[in-house]
């Protein structure tokens, strides 16, 4: 366990400032992510250093097509997420923290690894970057930040793959050490964000703009889910939003396959991916990449 670096006390309650849920956490209770606990007057991160996944990937798998292309990246993750996406491809680890006990999270799930060991693994594997991915790196901010600082000193690049729901305070902490990020833009209808991900759209839009303005390499991904975000109006809104920031921002449009709570939903038809590509071209986007098809 480690004390959270972003919270405020409010009587017996702790106000978490790590992400845009800004959870108001009662004594001995956890936030929405299931990992940050009000522990007798301190907000603690239960699973600091408990790595659930560590492997080498092509950087293009993040996906990042315009950052260190052709290179390998050391990918790491811890359990947990501040979203609950109905189509999550990694629900076995992203949602685990919401059901697991305190002891399981702190002592049993994952393998205890120190930030310095992650750096050693990246260097020995000839990976020029470390990717904080698979789940949501915002939720393991403290471990990610400690690792990112060491990575910079070792000459390594830091990459986040994120839902974009981090707080401005979190972005302030990571931005000096963050080289590239892929943010999921899951749609352009606030009601759908709430229904399918238990979140709001506007903080994600604000963070995409903020990241770009901080000159961090940015790519955006939209998983096109039938019946959720596959209509022309919504795809046009997404493409136009990205283009208004910069037509140089790469847009990854990915095919959905049945997963988690949407096992009965058909995969995205290829024609819908083609439509999204045409919409992106019409919006003036210069880098459009279809994935999973």
Give a topology summary.
Layout: E1 2-3, E2 7-10, E3 13-16, E4 24-25, E5 36-39, E6 42-45, E7 50-51, E8 53-58, E9 72-77, H1 91-94, H2 102-108, E10 111-112, H3 115-124, E11 129-132, H4 141-153, E12 157-162, H5 168-174, E13 180-184, H6 190-197, H7 202-213, E14 217-224, H8 232-245, E15 251-255, H9 270-282, E16 288-291
Parallel strand pairs: 9-11, 11-12, 12-13, 13-14, 14-15, 15-16
Antiparallel strand pairs: 1-6, 2-3, 3-4, 5-6, 7-10, 8-9
Give a structural overview:
The chain is of the alpha/beta class. The protein folds into two domains: 2-45, no CATH class; 52-291, Aldolase class I (TIM Barrel, Alpha-Beta Barrel), CATH 3.20.20.70. It contains nine helices and 16 strands. The strands form four sheets. An eight-stranded mixed beta sheet has the order 8-9-11-12-13-14-15-16. Strands 1-6-5 form a three-stranded antiparallel beta sheet, with no helix packed on it. The model has no long low-confidence stretch (mean pLDDT 98). This is Radical SAM protein, pyruvate formate lyase activating enzyme. Keywords: 4Fe-4S, Iron, Iron-sulfur, Lyase, Metal-binding, Oxidoreductase, Pyruvate, S-adenosyl-L-methionine. Its cofactor is [4Fe-4S] cluster. Its EC number is 1.97.1.4. One of its GO terms (molecular function) is metal ion binding.
